Amino acid sequence: MLISTDASGLASAVQAIKHGDVIAFPTDTYFALGADGLNPNAVERVFATKGRNPGTPVPLLVRDSVMAESLCREFPEPLRKLADHFWPGALTIVLPASGDVPTVVTASTGTVGVRVPDHAIARKIIELAGVPVTGTSCNLTGRDPVKEAIVVEQIFGDTIAGCVDGLCGDSTAPSTVVSYVDGEIVLLRTGAIDAESIQNIVGDIVAS
C-alpha cells in the first residue's frame, strides 16, 4: 500500500510504527525499512521482511543529536564534531550503546550506529514517532537497494504496513560509517562522504 506524504498519510505511517509494524520510507540515500528501533519485536520483523538472519547490527535513524545522545553511553568529541558538520547527511556514527537499545539492534556488539537523514519526510516521521527508527536499506537480502516507491510496493506488497510515496535524495552511495577507537576515527565503510572530507574536520586522527 502506497502512503501519501501529506499530514494524514504520515500520521498513518507513524501509527504503524507505534503499533510495532514495518513501513518503507524515502531517505536521502535509498528507501529504508522503518520500525520502532526500541521495540525488539518490531526490529525482528525488519529482519524477517528482508529475509536476513538476526545477528548483524541495525542502524537507527534519529531526528537530531539530542536523540542520538539518548541512545549512547558517551559521544566522543571527534565524533561530535563530525555530527555537527555532516548531520543531517550521509554519515552513520557508531557509538557505545545505552541500555535502552535492544540487543537485536546492536547484535551484542555493545554499539549502535546512528544517523540524522538529510530528508525532510524521514525526519518528520521520526519526529512524529518520537523514537529512533530503523534505517536498514529497503531490499531483500543480497539484492540492490531501492529508490522508487513503486518498486518497493512490487517487492514487499502486503509484507509491510505500507510505503511512503516520496522521492529519495540524489545520492547513489550509501552512508559512510565511522567509529572512534583508541583515539582514532575508523572508517568502517566509505560511502557518500570520503576520508579526506572527514580528515578536514577532525584533523590527522583518521586511521589509515
Give the key terms.
8 helices; DHBP synthase; 5-stranded mixed sheet; alpha/beta; 6-stranded mixed sheet; 208 residues
From the 3D structure, determine the CATH topology: DHBP synthase
Broad structural category: alpha/beta
Report strand %.
15-25%
Task: From the alpha carbons, calculate the radius of gyration and give it in angstroms.
Answer: 16 Å
Mean pLDDT: 95
Strand order of the largest sheet: 7-4-6-5-10-11
Q: Could you list the spans in which at least 5 consecutive residues all have pLDDT below 50?
A: none
Question: How many individual helices?
Answer: 8
List the helices and strands and how they pair.
Blueprint: E1 2-3, H1 7-18, E2 23-25, E3 32-34, H2 40-50, E4 60-61, H3 65-69, H4 77-86, E5 91-96, H5 103-106, E6 111-115, H6 120-129, E7 133-134, E8 136-137, H7 149-156, E9 162-164, E10 176-181, E11 184-189, H8 195-202
Parallel strand pairs: 1-9, 2-9, 4-6, 5-10
Antiparallel strand pairs: 2-3, 3-8, 4-7, 5-6, 10-11
